[in-house]
Amino acid sequence: MVKRAATNQKIAAILREIGLFDEAFDVPYKPQAYESAAEVVEGLGEQLSDLYQKCGTACIDDLPGIGESIAKKIEELVTTGRLKAYDQLKKKYPFDLAGMTAIHGLGPKKAMALYQALKVKDLKALENAAKAGKVRRVPGFGRKTEDAILSGLGFLREHEGRFRLHDILPVADRLVGQLKRVPGAHEVEVTGSIRRMKETIGDIDLIMTADDPKRALDAFTAYPEVTQVLMRSDDRASVRCRGGIQADLIVLEPDHFALVLHHFTGNREHNIELRTLALKHDMTLSEYGLLKEGKPLPIKKEENIYQALGLPWIPPEIREGQGEINAAREGRLPDLVGYDDVKGDLQVQTDWTDGAASIEEMAKEARKRGLSYIAVTDHTKALAMTGGLDEKRLAEQGKEIDALNAKTKGFRILKSTECDILKDGRLDVDDAALKALDLVCVSVHSFFALSESVQTERIIRAFKHPLVNVFLHPTGRIVNAREPYALDFPRVLRAAKEYGVALEVNGSHRLDLRDAHVREAVGTGVKLVIDSDSHSPAEYDFLKFGIAQARRGWATKADVLNTKPVEAFLKALHGLKKNKK
DNA sequence: GCCGTTTTCGGCCCGACTGTTTTCAGTCG
């Protein structure tokens, strides 16, 4: 078969741009339908082309937010790689509508007006026109809009795309800590996609209550990480922080805190669904109140909003409009794995290879953080640049671990490895060496460009090895840095289940598995482990990002093996192998 | 274009801000 199917990313971009064109032409309702479909496509863990091969448009039509019409468009994109309707649209309006609307303050209608008046086709042409003072002469535009376009272009150039949660959460936490120390400050919370622990973040949204709003805002705008004050009023301020991210603070009356916290936590789809549900209960919901017959109900906590609508409280991590409200209504909301539930970290690198600290130091830090075991998973010899271990060094490392375990009580260091899967699916270390370990973890670090079927076969061959327990960072992606390798993920899941292999949720910048994959794994009954992939003591911080990602994928404590104490964990892990056919 | 606790048609979330206007459209969250 000719392999020219469009990727999910490409499909989402096309759907989104079609929606933008509809919006530019003031077509009602369709823009939201296309945008919502694009969101769903982006969040999928599986390629639409694979889904299509399996069961045609029926499966695609079944996706939430995707109906007959868009399913047909997707079919065309995965079978031919093109979409005629889109091509015609672009032929008639050959300009970068999506790129232009990425500029803050410039929406589809204004972008279309600029194209029609000035024939600007891309960001470069737009910049030239703005610099030449042509934009302000277009009807409906003025000097301020022209300036805003130029500054928006500058920002885009500096910051392509979104910021990583890993980089932003510490900044947000620091701001929250500082605001809590302002005299007269009461509640302070971070909201938005940070509260949902989404892997990438657009800006930092903060809300608080305080006796003296002016004092709180004065303090906020004066913090050392603030490089520029963008806006300031009586109850709110927007600032630019070091590194370029924007942070917004609103100081609220106590009565509105929970409502606004909920409103800004979102996401948009979740809010829309909830407001629609409110209407069905003859209520209206906004950030200003939950009104029944025009009268506001008392909302002290977020729980009150959900209760009034007959729902249990829904954790922020799964407020994505991906079926959580229906699940809540039907009483099948998962009891998500908690941030304190993980008992051991199963991917820890030490100075035996590319880690920065000794085994003892890594163990000490893990213990300090409340863990009761770690697995030492240094690389193997195929990864020469890290000084990967061969059989002999692995055995020596085992002796050091035995000695350390002998002198400690209440903490266990497990002997393990991050064994390379070679190009043909064999393992980088011999069976005798692997047998001496408490558990065997494997991963891919080479030959990323293999075709989907070859890569999948390679990995499944490794799964068939009787000693393999855990598959680390299964898709090879790195947030904002590297795309995953081609993989038939549903097949990998089935093989993991059949051969008794657990999949990792890696909390480092990889975030691999990602949320959608976790949800698929949970749905298939594949067991997970959550690890930090620490290369230094400080990187145990990454564990919480892994837990967050697992929560976003609806994983419960029972889905995650390393929520168990060490003996029970090992028993359960090896039990996966024994149960296999 | 999507969807169903008004289920195959007739609805579709809510409010504020901004800039360009003289009363509002567009954008954003």
UniProtKB/TrEMBL annotation:
It holds the Pfam family HHH_8. GO terms for cellular component: cytosol. Residues 344-423 form the Polymerase/histidinol phosphatase N-terminal domain. It catalyses: DNA(n) + a 2'-deoxyribonucleoside 5'-triphosphate = DNA(n+1) + diphosphate. One of its GO terms (biological process) is DNA repair. Its EC number is 2.7.7.7. Gene3D superfamilies: 5' to 3' exonuclease, C-terminal subdomain (1.10.150.20), Beta Polymerase, domain 2 (3.30.460.10), DNA polymerase beta, N-terminal domain-like (1.10.150.110), DNA polymerase, thumb domain (3.30.210.10), Metal-dependent hydrolases (3.20.20.140). InterPro entries: DNA-dir_DNA_pol_X, DNA_pol_lamdba_lyase_dom_sf, DNA_Pol_thumb_sf, DNA_pol_X_beta-like, HHH_MUS81, NT_sf, PHP_dom, PHP_phosphatase. Keywords: DNA damage, DNA repair, DNA-directed DNA polymerase, Nucleotidyltransferase, Transferase. Residues 6-320 form the DNA-directed DNA polymerase X domain. The keyword DNA repair applies. SMART domains: POLIIIAc, POLXc. The keyword Glycoprotein does not apply. GO terms for molecular function: DNA binding; DNA-directed DNA polymerase activity; phosphoric ester hydrolase activity; zinc ion binding. This is DNA-directed DNA polymerase. It comes from Candidatus Uhrbacteria bacterium RIFCSPHIGHO2_01_FULL_63_20.
